[in-house]
Every structure is written in structure tokens, then in C-alpha cells.
């Protein structure tokens, strides 16, 4: 859904004059928020994939990036909804619309930065072979160092 939002972005506020388009944007934003909320609810009981030996700074950074991504993604949808509401109220120009657009753009920029950090951390842990990669990228399970040693020796 995030990728769709990137490629199907509103380039001109006048696009919101189409009631069908505006309705779709509202439904899309609400569905996106619902999926994020469900994902957070499902993942609330899961612990960190970091090994016990991981330094405290990595634990703090992981939590900040993880929750920061969710906040940024939620804010994209919330500010998008706010833009739609402000537009519908006829306040197309002015400080309120400017604030909503600036907050929307800041949320998008923050999400790009946090997703980049998340991917960098995944790659970093892939080279460490500490098991974190497999938790972050479940499609490509890594072999642990012990499995690699056993294969090399056998």
C-alpha cells in the first residue's frame, strides 16, 4: 500500500475536486491506517530479534526506528485526510492548508529516512549473521555462522 501511495500521489490539489477521486483517497487512507493499527496490535507481543549480546545503543536505535516508521506512516495518512477535509471545507489556500501540506511532506520525508535506516540495519545484520536478518526479511532466511562452519568443515 505504501508503494501505491508513492506512485499514485496527488500532484495537484485540484485533483481533489473529483468526488470519486477524493472518496477513494479517503478510503485508501483509512484502510492504510487500519492495516498499520492491526500490524501494531499483532506485533505488540513480539520481542526484539536482537541477540542478548547486542549493545544498548542498538536496542534503543531499533525501537526508535521501528516506532518512528509507524508514526511517520500513520502521519502520512492522517495529514492526507486533513488535506482532504480542509479542501472539502473550501479552505484551499491559506495557512491551514499550507500547514497540512507541510506536515504531510515532512511525514513522507521522515518515512523515507526511517525506511532507509531500517534497510541499512537489515543489511548490517545480514553481514553479522546474528539472526536479525531472518526476522527482518523473512523471505530470505540466512544461515547462521554455525551452519556455515558445519558446511565448510563437512
From TrEMBL:
This is Cytochrome B561. SUPFAM superfamilies: Transmembrane di-heme cytochromes. One of its GO terms (biological process) is respiratory electron transport chain. InterPro entries: Cyt_b561_bac/Ni-Hgenase (IPR011577), Cytochrome_b561_oxidase (IPR052168), Di-haem_cyt_TM (IPR016174). The keyword Transmembrane applies. It comes from the Bacteria. Its cofactor is heme b. Its main location: membrane. One of its GO terms (cellular component) is plasma membrane. GO terms for molecular function: electron transfer activity; heme binding; metal ion binding. Pfam families: Ni_hydr_CYTB. Signal peptide: none annotated. The chain crosses the membrane at residues 20-43, 64-89, 95-124. It is a multi-pass membrane protein. It is found in: Cell membrane. It comes from Planktomarina temperata RCA23. Keywords: Cell membrane, Electron transport, Heme, Iron, Membrane, Metal-binding, Transmembrane, Transmembrane helix, Transport. Residues 19-138 form the Cytochrome b561 bacterial/Ni-hydrogenase domain. Belongs to the cytochrome b561 family.
